[in-house]
Amino acid sequence: MSSRWSKDLTEIEKEDYRNRYKGCGKERYKVANIDHCHKINQVRGLLCTSCNKGLGQFYDQPSLLVKASEYLRKFNQKCLN
Ligand SMILES: [Zn+2]
After folding, report:
1. If you measure from the C-alpha of residue 12 to the centroid of ligand 1, how many angstroms do you get, rounded to a whole number?
2. C-alpha 76 to ligand 1 mean position (Å)
3. How many angstroms separate the alpha carbon of residue 2 from the centre of ligand 1?
4. What's the 20 CA to ligand 1 centre distance in angstroms?
5. Total domains present in the chain
6. What is the distance in A from the centroid of ligand 1 to the CA of 68?
């Protein structure tokens, strides 16, 4: 981890007073993934492994994540009714 990231991480940990992952909100454990924006190389927050990998699988595109969420929501409505 670079020293610049260490500084950024400290700031994020101060903000994250509840010790929750930023993505899913689950309780944070010792292992956290430092998520960062690849375009400007800036730390965005601490994520669990699933969220960190998931965002990458969706190319960090919120619109794609919304479409996938809608897809699952529609299916789940059929499945539960
Ligand atoms: Zn997560």
Report:
1. 16
2. 21
3. 24
4. 9
5. 1
6. 16
Q: Is 56 helix (H, G, I), strand (E, B) or coil?
A: helix
Q: 20: domain CATH number?
A: 3.40.1800.10
Helix (H, G, I), strand (E, B) or coil at 45: strand
Triad 73, 47, 69: Cα angle to 5°: 10
Render pLDDT for 46-67 as a digit per residue (tens, 0 to 9).
899 999 999 999 999 999 999 9
DSSP-assigned beta bridge partners for residue 35: 45
Quote the pTM value.
Answer: 0.73
**Looking at this protein, which amino acid is placed at residue 63?**
S
Integer Cα distance of 68 and 81 in angstroms? 20
52: domain range? 3-80
